[in-house]
Design a protein that fits this description.
two-stranded antiparallel ribbon; 1 helix
Length: 274
């Protein structure tokens, strides 16, 4: 937790700064339902895991400041909270040796992969203008304590940011930024630091393997691997800083998704197993 009071006016000029007080004070809770399925039959091996969970805390990282007057006001979704998380891993030996004459060229071909479908991480809301007048915007390792006001309404506007690439003029933010406003001077906003989620994950990693037996104790393995095999864009969370003025032509600022994870990556390798 960070408790800090900085000068709100030029009382000392450049010779005076701010002093922060750091204290470890945070609490969290995590609840989940976990299901695991394992199946092996013939040439197929399948492992599936599903988690339905919720994680709450008042500080997820060193950059999350805790409210100095009432830590419970900082209680929100954890930065790493994922409501639904489904992961499948699988391996299948291709039956080329059954379709054709068994031999070095037809035996040992295996396709394997890891597939993940998950809801997105929470969006962190912030306000960097120090309207609360407690002076916690410039001291400490990270986020400010100030958060905007929120008026309930239809929150999600564009859960598929790809649509913006097909628009010729005005872009649509991921969430309705008009539902948020800056704090009243001298007061805290009513929005929680994190209370809704960003874009989810739809990812396939695939590999094709071929084992070639050289000797009894030595095997040469060929690997062709695709990460994000179908080149499905994995978007990062939208901008949650209300002081980043939205640009609806460029599609940037508060409420807009501005970045994504890596596109498809392919690699080939040879391994010697002994």
């Amino acid at each position: 937790m960070i408790q800090v009071r900085q000068s709100l006016g030029p009382t000392g000029g450049s010779d005076f700064g701010s002093t922060g007080w750091f204290r470890t004070l945070a609490f969290s809770s995590y609840n989940s339902l976990d299901v695991t399925v394992r199946h092996t039959t013939g040439r197929l091996t399948l492992l599936g895991g599903y988690t339905y969970s919720k994680s709450m805390d008042n500080s997820s990282t060193a950059t999350d400041q805790v409210h100095p007057y009432n830590p419970h006001l900082s209680r929100a979704l954890s930065a790493f909270d994922i409501t639904h998380n489904l992961v499948l891993s699988y391996s299948y030996e291709l039956p080329f040796d059954k379709l054709f004459h068994p031999g070095r060229l037809t035996s040992g071909w295996v396709i394997s992969g890891i597939t993940r479908f998950a809801t997105g991480l929470p969006i962190t809301l912030s306000e960097t203008d120090d309207n609360s007048l407690i002076g916690a915007t410039s001291v400490g390792p990270g986020s400010t304590l100030d958060e905007p006001n929120y008026a309930p309404g239809k929150l999600y506007l564009n859960t598929d940011p790809r649509k913006n690439s097909r628009l010729t003029s005005t872009k649509v933010p991921y969430f309705d930024n008009a539902l948020f406003s800056t704090e009243t001077l001298g007061q805290f906003g009513n929005a929680r630091r994190r209370f809704f989620h960003g874009p989810g994950t739809n990812n396939w990693d695939l590999a094709l393997l071929k084992d070639i037996r050289i000797r009894e104790s030595k095997t040469l393995q060929f690997r062709a691997e695709l990460f994000n095999a179908f080149n499905h864009t994995q978007f990062n969370g939208p901008d949650g800083n209300i002081n980043d003025v939205p640009d609806y032509n460029a599609g940037t600022g508060f409420g807009f998704v501005n970045s994504a994870n890596d596109a498809r990556v392919a690699q080939f390798a040879l391994k010697v197993l002994f």
